[in-house]
Amino acid sequence: MARITLISTGGTIASRWQGTGYAADAGGDTVLASAALPEGVEVTVVDLFNVNSSRMTTELQLTLLRTVREVLADPAVDGIVVTHGTDTLEESAFLLDLHHDDPRPVVFTGAQKPLGQAEGDGPGNMYDALQVAANVRDLGVLIAFDGKVHAARGTVKTQTLAADAFADPSAGPLGRLGFGRVDLRHKPRRPAPLPQPGAGAVISEVPRVDIVMHHSDADATLFDAAVAAGARGIVLVATGAGNATPELVDAVSSAVRRGVLVAVSTRVSAGPLAEIYTGGGAVDLVAAGAVLSGTLRAGQTRIAVLAALLADVSPAARPDLLGRLIDAPSALPAAGTDTSGEQAAA
């Protein structure tokens, strides 16, 4: 019997009609009761909080991180499933993955259709997530959605309403589910896990990390406003492979000199950033002290910046740490990938 803990945090999978729209209000037991259980799986429910994930905060994400650590302190637990709203699922999953140092899996899932709706996708996603949690190890934090298994790293929400909501546009899924099987083809790319922020203590002040978008008429006004508002980290969402303007390069240089950790992502959906262009391009942004985000997009780049700021390292060491969090080792082929109902190391 695989013993899985379900941590319920809200989202569409727990949402019901409120008269004018849907909102998360159902507990984990209710969500679980909507789905069939895989054979040989026993589930314990933890109702952690119940929010639409557009209202997610760093404080709530850190609470989730601590709760996962507390649940896994019980050696009888074989894995964890987290139900989460899809809007910010990619951020919470990536934060947990950066700190996850246990061979037992943490599997995120959710839904695109509310609880109890005809042809809803929540029950199937729940079943799949429980199946994955019961049958894999040493893969970090995963996302099970619409019959696919994704690594936390690089996976983003790519569809606002469609059932096939998540993808890694630069790499693709780790594998698929079907007919009681978990078929994984690759192992995720992961850096060495970070210690838990605050070593279990409550963090008194969460660092502000902002995202600023570059566009055709962009100047440094919003970037400078983020610095003035007290941002300790900023993600510049650049164009192309990481390009902006000389004015934004100057703003980045000034912010870095003030101790702000700056990363550069891109508004393009797939592909890596690269130092190709000058004249305000990635060549100049890196020279100004920014860190390119590889294939991570804005939301997960912000999480990497946040994790670097929360880590117990000196300010001077943070850019190097951020670079290591972004530039994870290459993925390896997965071993033991055909799992059909017994514990397997993937």
UniProtKB/TrEMBL annotation:
Ranges where the Asparaginase/glutaminase C-terminal domain occurs: 208-316
Pfam families cross-referenced by the UniProt entry: Asparaginase, Asparaginase_C
Annotated active site: T12, T86
Domain L-asparaginase N-terminal: 3-188
Enzyme Commission no: 3.5.1.1
Catalytic activity: L-asparagine + H2O = L-aspartate + NH4(+)
Protein keywords: Hydrolase
PROSITE patterns assigned: ASN_GLN_ASE_1 (PS00144), ASN_GLN_ASE_2 (PS00917), ASN_GLN_ASE_3 (PS51732)
InterPro entries: AsnASE_II (IPR004550), Asp/glu_Ase-like_sf (IPR036152), Asparaginase/glutaminase-like (IPR006034), Asparaginase/glutaminase_AS1 (IPR020827), Asparaginase/glutaminase_AS2 (IPR027475), Asparaginase_C (IPR040919), L-asparaginase_C (IPR027473), L-asparaginase_N (IPR027474)
Keyword Hydrolase: yes
Keyword Hydrolase in annotation: yes
UniProt similarity note: Belongs to the asparaginase 1 family.
Protein name: asparaginase
Organism: Streptomyces endophyticus
Lineage, highest ranks first: Bacteria, Bacillati, Actinomycetota, Actinomycetes, Kitasatosporales
